[in-house]
Amino acid sequence: MATQLLLLQDVDHLGRKGDVVNTKPGFAYNFLIPKGVAVVATKATLRRQVKLKDERLKIAEQDRKEAEEMASRLQGETISFTVKVDHEGHMYGSVSTLDIIDLVKMQTGIELDKRFIGLKHPIKETGVFAITLRLKEDITCEIHVKVIPEQHVA
Prior knowledge:
This protein has 4 helices and 6 strands, in the order ββαβααβαββ. The protein is of the alpha+beta class.
């Protein structure tokens, strides 16, 4: 049996502020309601839905502007990593999402959230890789990650 809730905040993989959603009772009563993220959808709480949706639209517009600005600054940007390799050219370790976040912040001053980076697995070889960033409000852009082997000095 599902519990109908009115979301007071955006919840990843569930819905946005002002949405009425159905969830399992355990998730609703053990997590969403105690955290203040949702309330049980009754006639009284559903009256708040219009106000919440209006607030959500204002936030969405601001998020869209910020994401478009960020995307225009990052589009086509090349981020370079120098990595240690063995004598056969295999990398020690890998380049992860957190490494990309740190380097983007160092090189461009833009702070990314790890959810924005569309990297399924860490990069474990040298070369140039196109990474799609999915920013807020479904704004996307592409950056290039260049993984360069460290030159050994003999």
